[in-house]
Design goal:
Keywords: ATP-binding, Nucleotide-binding, Transport. Pfam families: ABC_tran. There is one protein chain. By secondary structure, the chain is of the alpha/beta class. It has ten helices and 14 strands. It has two domains: 2-210, P-loop containing nucleotide triphosphate hydrolases (Rossmann fold), CATH 3.40.50.300; 218-278, Alpha-L RNA-binding motif (Alpha-Beta Plaits, 2-Layer Sandwich). The strands form three sheets. It has a six-stranded mixed β-sheet with strand order 6-7-8-4-9-10, with helices on both faces. Strands 1, 2, 3 and 5 form a four-stranded antiparallel β-sheet that branches. Strands 12-13-11-14 form a four-stranded antiparallel β-sheet, with no helix packed on it. A hairpin with a 2-residue loop joins strand 1 and strand 2. Helix 4 (107-115) packs antiparallel against helix 5.
């Protein structure tokens, strides 16, 4: 089941196209990471999903239905530009949010605040950036929503808080929840996301599991030989995108997919050593950025 589905979702501001024909699917019980550079359309997408702004074209369904007042209570949201009432304590702020949602039980919010080492008795105006972010996270999850949408959730969190937050995310999803979050911190997405979508200049250029993206990503193999071998010897091997001569006895190949044919081709020469650079999510992201270009 898709918790979030969009069809040709578009948003323009006068002559500026912020989002173009977005077909996004977020499955029930997964963490979906939306990647992209600043200005790619991530925040616009999230705001469209929660009905803060309206699309220029296309459609959105949540839990198989169009957005309605009844669905809003099933969604938690953390904006990227979180604004708090500085005079309210954390506990007062959570009670205020609970009243808006008709959800008076602060049990889950209190438990999460304790896990994140957040003092709910302090006024929001006294909190550091990291603790303000923690309070925003707590309010997003505090009413036990079915779907949580987070815009750059780890911004300002220290490493210990990030680790605890990521652990909580996995527990939340394992208990039946669904998370869609945006980020440009690639290591965070790689650590917690089940599937990833990459937005560039308002277009979704790929969405897939992290494992599948890695399996099909461009990787580098460097071969060292006991004698001079020309890079051209590998240019026709299946999967080889580029073969570069780094020295007379060393050739570096960029390859996609299985590398068996390339290794067999290299074994025809006096092979001394082979090293492989396995791609991470940053490599994949940069590859798509280079391939599709970036207008921002």
């Amino acid at each position: 089941m898709n918790v979030v589905s969009t069809h040709q979702l578009s948003k323009s501001y006068n002559e500026t196209v912020a989002l173009r024909d977005l077909d996004l699917e977020v499955h029930a019980g997964e963490v979906y990471g939306l990647l992209g550079p600043n200005g790619a359309g991530k925040t616009t997408t999230l705001r469209l999903l929660i009905d803060v702004i309206r699309p220029t074209g296309g459609s959105i369904t949540l839990f198989g239905e169009p957005m309605s007042p009844g669905l809003r209570g099933r969604i938690g949201y953390l904006p990227g530009d979180l604004v708090l009432y500085d005079r309210l304590t954390g506990a007062d702020y959570l009670r205020f949010c609970g009243a808006l949602r008709d959800h008076a039980d602060l049990g889950e919010a209190t438990r999460l605040a304790k896990r994140l080492d957040l003092d709910l008795d302090r006024r929001a105006g006294e909190l550091s950036k990291g603790n303000r972010q923690k309070l925003g996270i707590v309010q997003a999850f505090g009413h036990r929503p079915d779907l949580v949408i987070l815009d750059e959730p780890a911004s300002g969190l220290d490493p210990l808080a990030q680790r605890e937050f990521h652990s909580y995310l996995r527990e939340y999803v394992d208990s039946g929840g669904t998370v869609l979050f945006s980020s440009h911190v690639l290591s965070e997405v790689e650590q917690v996301a089940d599937r990833v979508g990459i937005l560039l200049a308002g277009c979704l250029v790929v969405q897939d599991t992290v494992a599948s993206l890695k399996a099909n990503a461009l990787r580098e193999l460097t071969f060292t030989f006991g004698e001079e071998v020309a890079a051209a010897s590998f240019s026709g091997v299946p999967g080889v995108r580029e073969a570069m001569q780094t020295s007379g006895t060393e050739v570096r190949c960029r390859v996609t997919g299985a590398v068996g044919e390339l290794v067999r081709a290299a074994a025809r020469f006096p092979l001394v050593n082979v090293t492989s650079h396995e791609p991470d999510l940053e490599d994949i992201f940069l590859h798509y950025t280079e391939e599709h270009g970036d207008d921002d």
